[in-house]
Write a structure and sequence with these properties.
79% helix; 9 helices; 253 residues; mainly alpha
């Protein structure tokens, strides 16, 4: 592999780790980078290699958030378990369900999320301390199952979906939602790798190289998120969702 390709993959992985740690959506950067550098790879191998690179950055971001942001362990357990199960099912369905059938629905959902977040100026700006109840746990389980399946079978924008869902239905701010999303993202990546590794759809040398860069980027992303808070994350979130909308619209039309 040419040194230029290696350097570009490392740079993109670093950028993906930083963005993903703050607002999710690292796949928006990392997956096109892998496809552009290695266009001969099968889609499952692209996704598997991306997951290997991402899981280390996600793990480091989740650990950093947990040291700084107080989160209920029962809620984290529900999110982790449901995300893992549904992501594994999604990964196993990669070769069975064409991702093209999802794209129109995903595009519509992203547009709705962008409009809602932009018009609701206080959305995600305030964290409401609540005691856990059955409704919150059920909503967390439903959201984690749906988003986990999506991440296993396709992936781009998963962190953004997690963040929006947690703010909307768990009444947390962007900072706490980002922390919760890292737990969900880590387990979805772990579940997907549980399928991709045994089936031979992971390039370990490339994925490992990108993983180191992803960790460095994730540490920077968490530091920025903690320093500048929910207002900063909200702006990044809107920018990322807008980019996702443009990319998916271009692919469709």
């Amino acid at each position: 592999m040419d040194i230029e390709i290696i350097i570009s993959l490392i740079v993109f992985a670093f950028m993906a780790g930083a963005i993903d740690a703050a607002v999710g959506g690292g796949g928006l950067i990392q997956i096109p980078a892998i496809i552009g550098s290695l266009p001969h790879l099968a889609p499952a191998t692209v996704f598997g290699t991306n997951k290997l690179a991402s899981i280390f950055g996600t793990a480091s971001a989740a650990f950093s958030y947990l040291k700084q942001v107080k989160l209920p362990w029962l809620l984290l357990g529900i999110i982790a378990l449901c995300s893992f199960v549904s992501s594994f099912i999604g990964a196993a369905s990669v070769t069975l369900i064409p991702v093209e059938v999802f794209k129109p629905f995903i595009l519509i959902m992203l547009i709705v999320i962008a409009i809602y977040t932009f018009t609701k100026k206080q959305f995600g700006r305030v964290h409401v301390e609540q005691k856990l109840n059955r409704k919150m746990l059920v909503m967390a389980a439903i959201g984690s199952l749906a988003i986990g399946f999506y991440d296993g079978i396709f992936g781009p924008g998963t962190g953004s979906f997690f963040i929006f869902f947690f703010i909307r239905y768990l009444s947390v701010d962007f900072l706490h939602a980002s922390a919760l999303s890292k737990i969900g993202n880590f387990t979805t990546n772990l579940a997907a790798l549980s399928f991709f590794v045994p089936t031979g759809h992971v390039l370990f040398q490339i994925g490992g190289m990108m993983a180191l860069a992803n960790i460095c980027g994730a540490l920077l992303g968490v530091r920025l998120a903690l320093k500048y808070g929910s207002g900063f994350i909200r702006i990044l979130f809107l920018i990322l969702v807008s980019l996702l909308i443009c990319r998916m619209a271009y692919q469709l039309f």
